[in-house]
Amino acid sequence: MYDHIRQELNIDTYVSFSGQHAVVKGKTIHEQPVDAKSITELHYEAIEHNFPMVFMNDTLMRSTVPDHPHVIESLARLQFPYPEVDQQFPLEQTVFQALLFCEPEQTHLKERHSNFNFLRWHDFAIDILPKGGSKAIGVNKVMEALNLDHKNSFAIGDGMNDIEMLQEVGTGIAMGNSREPLKEIADLITDSVDNDGFMKALKTVELI
Fold it and tell me: Residue 197: exposed, middle, or buried by beta-carbon count in 10 A (0-12, 13-18, 19+)?
C-alpha cells in the first residue's frame, strides 16, 4: 500500500503484512497467505453479523462494503484510502492479511475461528493472520537471506503485532505511543510517532 514511498526511497528489501510477505532485493523470498477456505468461511459469517472486512495482498486491497464509518476511521490512522469494494476477492485472490471491523465487545467470531491470530490495533479494527504468523517470521527470513547476525539487528514498532519481532531481533525499540505490553519487552523506548520518535531512535542506536 506504500509502494510510492518504497520507490521514492529505493527500498527493495522489506517485510509486509505482519510477516506474511517478505522481499529481498526485489525478489519475493517468503509468502504465507491465509487459508482460502478458512478466510472465506469467516467472510460469510462477518456478512451475517454486518461486520465489514478488508482483504489485502501484495498488489490489492479490497473492502466488503462501501463507506463504512469503522473502516473509514481505522484506515485513516494508516493514511490508507478507502478500498474498492469486491465481495469476491477472497474467493479469487491470494490473501496475505485481512481486517475485521467490529467493536471490542464483539468477539464471538474470534472464538469460533481458532485457526487465525486476531490482533486488535484499533477500537474498531482487528488484524487477521494465519495461526502462528508474525512479523518475526518475515524478519527472520530476510536476515537468513542476507546472512545477517541477529545481534546486529534492530526493529522499531508501536503495535501489539510487533511484540514477537522486537523479541526476535538484537535490539527491539518501542515507540513512545506504544501500549505497555510492547514497552515492557522492548530494549529501548523512543519518543512517540508524532514527535519524531523513529528518527530519534535511529540516532540513539547510531544507525544515522
Answer: buried
